[in-house]
Amino acid sequence: MKLGIVGLPNVGKSTLFNAITQAGAESANYPFCTIEPNVGVVSVPDKRLDVLKELYNSKKVVPTAIEFYDIAGLVRGASKGEGLGNQFLGHIREVEAIVHVVRCFEDENVVHVEGKINPLSDIETINIELILSDAEILERRLAKSIKQSKGDKTLGKEIEMLQRVKVVLDEGKSVRTMDLTSDEREFVNSLNLLSSKPIIYCANISEEDVVDGIENEHVKAVKEFAATENAEVVVICGKVEQEVAELEDEDRQAFLEELGLKESGLDKLIRSSYHLLNLISFLTAGPQEVRAWTIKKGTKAPQAGGKIHSDIERGFIRVETIAFEDLTEYGTMSAAKEVGKVRLEGKDYTVLDGDVMLFRFNV
């Protein structure tokens, strides 16, 4: 899973990236200090893996992971090549979802590229650039389809769909706001439009607001806007996340509790990412390793096995599966089998989050 962290310059993108990946991307109080996208791979926290490690006495734990791309700050006119516009837009096309960091804190020592703190204006600036870029791509695709339709009458539905998307873009709206059927969504996704990508608005607040537990007016405005796009909102403090990242594991929870926080911003961001992209994890366990695998909700057993190795999907016979909660309740697979909690499932089985699975296959 690849997530692109975007935003105007100096909103806290690289600070957030440094904190959640501990990768040390350069962070400075001026635009464009991030030229090439920094990439950080983050393990997805999953306490179930530690439990399984104890049950199976496994040698190692392998969590699933997310790749975060810290992409250069955008400015007005990026779709026309302003700033690092063309590079910025190209990098966004490579990610599955966008984490749009929005500045929701006041700090006279950190300059704002637009000269004032206005998160809705910041959101609009980036969304408009994505929409303008999409409109240019769509115009070319529509012209090509219309030309080809003279010799291929089957393109009528495609042209109709492209025209529907064009209307939305011409109205200055993101394609993600469209109400589409699953087939229509599949076609629109194939266009790889920037404004159709799922988005999480990451409201970056001050340390004072964290301590006070206050949801400021900037955050409220972001949440109201996000609701119009069915987008996710995560409220974090980049500076706090940096402090958390520098602590040892055993000290992190105590530090968060001191601030009145139940979890880190990274945990909230990962949870929102899974929800936004409709993802779940299934688990495999044995004496060598326990491991989490990320799949789309609704994935069938053979395709889930294919995440482990293509041979499993190709030669799938059946899968032995048990819910994580059932396995931990009875302690061992053999004990769970005695009470009928272990099931043999075939190729039509839809994998559920937390399924502990053993695949049978033959190639």
Number of E strands: 12
Low-confidence stretches: 24-35
In CATH, the topology of the largest domain is named Rossmann fold
Element order: H for helix, E for strand: EHEHEEHEHHHEHHEHHHEEHHEHHEE
Strand content: 15-25%
Number of domains: 2
Description of the structure:
With 363 residues, the chain is an alpha/beta fold. The protein folds into 2 domains: 2-276, 3-Layer(aba) Sandwich (Rossmann fold), CATH 3.40.50.300; 298-361, Beta-grasp domain (Ubiquitin-like (UB roll), Roll). Helix content is 43%, strand content 20%. The protein is built from 15 helices and 12 strands. It has helices at 13-21, 47-56, 85-92, 119-149, 156-170, 182-190, 207-212, 217-228, 238-245, 249-258, 265-276, 301-308, 310-314, 324-330, 333-338; strands at residues 2-6, 38-43, 60-62, 65-70, 97-103, 199-204, 232-236, 279-285, 289-296, 316-323, 343-345, 355-361. The strands form 3 sheets. A 6-stranded mixed sheet has the order 2-4-1-5-6-7, sandwiched between helices. A 3-stranded mixed sheet has the order 3-9-8, sandwiched between helices. A hairpin with a 3-residue loop joins β8 and β9 (289-296). α4 (119-149) runs antiparallel to α5. It is flat, with a radius of gyration of 23 Å. Belongs to the TRAFAC class OBG-HflX-like GTPase superfamily. OBG GTPase family. YchF/OLA1 subfamily. ATPase that binds to both the 70S ribosome and the 50S ribosomal subunit in a nucleotide-independent manner. Residues 278-361 form the TGS domain. This is Ribosome-binding ATPase YchF. Its cofactor is Mg(2+).
